[in-house]
Amino acid sequence: MSPGAGTEYEAPEPDEVTAPWWEATRRRVLLVQRCAACGHAQHPPRALCTACGSLRDLGWSEASGDGEVDACTVVERAMPGFQPPYVVARVRLAEGVLLLSNVVTERPHDVGVGDALRLDWRPLPDGRALPVFVPSER
Fold first, then answer.
1. C-alpha angle 94/62/30, rounded to 5°?
2. In angstroms, how far apart are the furthest CA atoms of the chain?
3. What's this model's pTM, rounded to 2 decimal places?
4. Would residue 5 count as lying in a domain?
5. pLDDT tens across 84-129, in order?
6. What is the domain extent for residue 75?
């Protein structure tokens, strides 16, 4: 099962820092913020580079959508509107950044650290989408 099965997902309103990231989700593109000054990639989007502190050299690059489980848990007792069991995972993207997301699978208890994942999307009512991941063969 997956979180929110049969219900609509909700997401925060974009701000000036996150707006480009959210806008890209309308095209099903996952962006990673990257600092031109030092090359550091980061997520979630921030107003400054977390490596060198630059305020002006932040840009965006498209993520491959490939990643692996860095840490995970299976939620057995969910909040209203969510259908357990489902997997919450810290995903390490091929670009090196960590992203907290869901792994959507019919076998949540089989998901483990090091498992290969690929990007998928869950639509939001306003046309944006949430990035989720599904198991992938290497």
1. 85
2. 44
3. 0.89
4. no
5. 999 999 999 999 999 999 999 999 999 999 999 999 999 999 999 9
6. 19-135
